[in-house]
Amino acid sequence: MKRIGSLLLALVLCVSMAACGRKEEGNGSSSGASSAPSGSGAPSQKLEGTVAKINLGADPKTLDPSLNSASDGNNVITNTFEGLLRDFGNGPEPATAEHYAVSDDGLTWTFTLREGAKWSDGQPVRAQDYVFSWRRTVDPKTASEYAYFLYPIQNAQEITKGEKPAEELGVRALDERTLEVTLAGPCDYFEELVCFPTLAPEREDVVDESGLWAKDPKKAVSNGPFYLTDYKLGSHLVLSKNPYYWDAENTKLDHVLCRMIVDASTILTSFKAGEIQWTDKAPTEEIPGLIASGELEVLPYISTYFYVINQNTPVEALKDVRVRKAISMAIDRQAICDMVTRGGQTPAMGYIPPGLTDDQGRDFRETAGDYYLAPTAQAAQAQALLAEAGYPNGEGIGTLEILYNTDDKHKAIAEAVQEMLKQNLGLSVKLVNQEWAVFQDTRNSGNYQALARHGWTGDYRDPQTFLDMFMTVGGAPNPQSGNMYQNEAFDALMEKALASTGAERYDAFYQAEELLMEDGYIIPIQYNVQTVLSSPKLTGWYLSSIGKLYLGRAQLEE
């Protein structure tokens, strides 16, 4: 273990020196190569009034609510679109819907839209806009990665499988302002679900199937506090105050300039120069010092950082669960948290992070336990498993590849894991990195050799948001799983959970996570925290524990 520790320290020092001398190059994604050097990302026209400047990071793959599945896109959509309800940390509250009623059996939800709810072009938001959006999301032709999100609604699952037309989704407009939703069964978290951007309304006369409309300022309309007025690929986008928003009097910012700087050292330089006023990305090697100085704020995060193993891997050894478990057991999670990421993260020995409770009010993670993992590496046990599987000291396995998206933190973690697998198991590991958009396509299509970086943040405060992406969708693996995971027993447990409430529902979740862990196709690394650099002049912003940034009530102080 001392040998691993010294090697990790060397890795950290190398990362620090590399970050200090790194040049910006190309349109990178998460933070390895900058798409906008310090001082760039200027809007096409001068912005008048109060302008908040934030760093968005990667250029979002899409800003279409039905197609987006990434956090960078969510941070824009959360501020441009609004669902029926919203949540600022105190639970769901009325948003575009001024009130709603639920039938005694919990299956019929009737939402009444605000009379003053309007789109950014002044047209009224209609109940039919929700019907169109939700039908579009579950329609297999749309290929939404979040189609399963609507499974609680009647016929949604059958529609995604192509067994029923989208028109049979359990949602209808009773009139211009009344939306009726029929659920397939009781749903304990439906209020939280309708807060999520995927369930925002969309205009049928505006949407194109490619999703490009949402990045075109001439076409995009939205119903939230801001709307898109400028967009330059890989450089910046501008959100401007929506004068027709029903709560516009509480929107204090005139514009939000969202820069797309992805190099971590450039982000910090830009922040210190006042070129950005808010970012949740900072150089990994600078985090301890920024925390100590009080500049960096550490916030709770319901989020897990993990690796996935491709279930369709061409590597024969990885088809043996003993090999998969050995790899996971050989990783020193505590060392990664203490010597690599160093921002208050904690070792992950299970998939679902702390902070979610079951029907008895118990923390899900504490109740489920740690399975076969420990904070530090279990080298001897891992070596024994490899030998039992017929690969003593890693002989016969060949070189394994770890795929990650370009980012200083992801690189540092991958290098640490690479060294741990070499030292503890004798494995040869090659690191492969790709720009964010390319990486998403590669991983989510299962087009990689062995291991890939992954991470998941809860879309709502319920264990289901972590587990349901491993369910098959329409009989095929869910691309969001990243590992092409398919297991009929897992699907059956999740189907049971979807149809249940209370203790029966959570018992199915506990069993589902156990099965997922025992299959060994996921390797939990750490439970994340949110690290934020924010100017004292920018106040009133809200960052939820599920990672969504809301600027509708933010303001700039002189």
UniProtKB/TrEMBL annotation:
<feature type="region of interest" description="Disordered">
    <location>
        <begin position="24"/>
        <end position="46"/>
    </location>
</feature>
<keyword id="KW-0732">Signal</keyword>
<protein>
    <submittedName>
        <fullName>Oligopeptide transport system substrate-binding protein</fullName>
    </submittedName>
</protein>
<comment type="similarity">
    <text>Belongs to the bacterial solute-binding protein 5 family.</text>
</comment>
<dbReference type="InterPro" id="IPR030678">
    <property type="entry name" value="Peptide/Ni-bd"/>
</dbReference>
<dbReference type="GO" id="GO:0015833">
    <property type="term" value="P:peptide transport"/>
</dbReference>
<dbReference type="InterPro" id="IPR023765">
    <property type="entry name" value="SBP_5_CS"/>
</dbReference>
<feature type="domain" description="Solute-binding protein family 5">
    <location>
        <begin position="92"/>
        <end position="475"/>
    </location>
</feature>
<feature type="compositionally biased region" description="Low complexity">
    <location>
        <begin position="28"/>
        <end position="44"/>
    </location>
</feature>
<dbReference type="GO" id="GO:0043190">
    <property type="term" value="C:ATP-binding cassette (ABC) transporter complex"/>
</dbReference>
<dbReference type="GO" id="GO:1904680">
    <property type="term" value="F:peptide transmembrane transporter activity"/>
</dbReference>
<dbReference type="GO" id="GO:0030288">
    <property type="term" value="C:outer membrane-bounded periplasmic space"/>
</dbReference>
<dbReference type="InterPro" id="IPR039424">
    <property type="entry name" value="SBP_5"/>
</dbReference>
<feature type="signal peptide">
    <location>
        <begin position="1"/>
        <end position="18"/>
    </location>
</feature>
<dbReference type="Pfam" id="PF00496">
    <property type="entry name" value="SBP_bac_5"/>
</dbReference>
<keyword id="KW-0813">Transport</keyword>
<dbReference type="InterPro" id="IPR000914">
    <property type="entry name" value="SBP_5_dom"/>
</dbReference>
